[in-house]
What does this fold into?
Amino acid sequence: MNVNIAPPQQTMSTSLKIGIIFLILIFFGLMFYFIIYPILKSKKDQDNSTGGKSSEARTNLGLEVYKNYFNMNQLPIPDNGVYFNQYYNQKKYYGLRDFFYASSYKSYLPCGYTNDVVSYNAIKNVIINGARVINLDLFYSGISQYLENSEVIVGNVVNGKLTFFPDSKEDERFLNFENCLKIVNDLAWTKVNTPFFIYLNMEFLPDQNFENKTCQIIKKVLGHRFLDKYYGFQRVNLGNIPIGKAVDKLILMTNRKPLDPTLNEIINGVMAPKDSNVILHTITNNSLQYGGIKTVAVSKQILTDQTMYNLVAAIKMNDISTDNFLIMKIDTKNYDTAYNFELGISMTFMNWQNYKAPDSVQDTTPAPKTAPVPVPVPAPAPTATATQTKTQNDFMYDYLLRFKDGGMILKPKELIYIPRPPPPVLKPNQKIDYKQDSTIGYGGFQTTTL
It folds into this structure.
């Protein structure tokens, strides 16, 4: 009888194949779990945080923050900015330095700072929500500012280079300067007649021809809102301008003195640390660790005196952070500005796109007293007193709360300088005053007054 028995080598070969397939499946499973899945998850998180690949989706996501703003009142200036000066025994106007202004930094950015999107709607929302000072960074389109076809644009410039959202189209990387000014013309004076400031940060190289292009655009759109020509050429301290001369008017500030005479004429203020008629203090995230604006002067009184006589501004510079694409607006953090208001700084520029309303305010009231229980139990913890707590809100909510009655508010009286006549010059009494004699030493090298 013949019995067919499979050779043992064939049985071992099948088992080996099954084992190899099993090991391969385990290998690919581990590779997917530890390598491929984290990559896909990271990509999904990035798409969710940035609104997807398109710049339009990210813009819309960034603009959502403005819907959470509380409605700011648009009240006029009290008494039209007039007060009674007892030293002159007559009514006078407060100066521009005597007010706080709701100020927006990088007003055209709806999201973050690092390589991000730009939007006309960001400018609209900032103005509608009460800002009386906006910031536009000016640059040129094309490969050179010296070409005839180069246009004046608004865009985010870092280290002399225009930056933008990587996946944006070419026409989405910057805004047309003229269109930005048309938004200002349409919205800035619809509810109030308070002055409106534009800080034009000229990021292009000093050039008379390109500055002249800038001037012609401003004149075309907002020429009817200019201050009197007397206040051109930065010839006066901007803080001294009476508020009555600035009602319903546009006030233009730049980061440097223009070379073009026509642009220089319509610029009312140059905002810089020195040699300017608007004093600028620059703050960084690093300097905030050591006190921020407190490190500028040795005493608070020095800065307070500065703000009483001048229009003073403070800007916290944003830091470059590529994490902006994963955590939107992480590079536009604000800071506690309470001390700025104590000093009387008129313009504290803030990132309006980075706003978080506080969560519901929780009231904790004392618990009602009850009769003691005759049971040996541990003593109860002390009851909480009536308090209110709110979550961190990136300081923007507290900032806007100061302007709840309007984007331009009068400073407290202790921070306002009230002009008074100079003291009278008394005629010296020759009987009791010393007579001054001047003596010149040998060779004229020494002069002494007695």
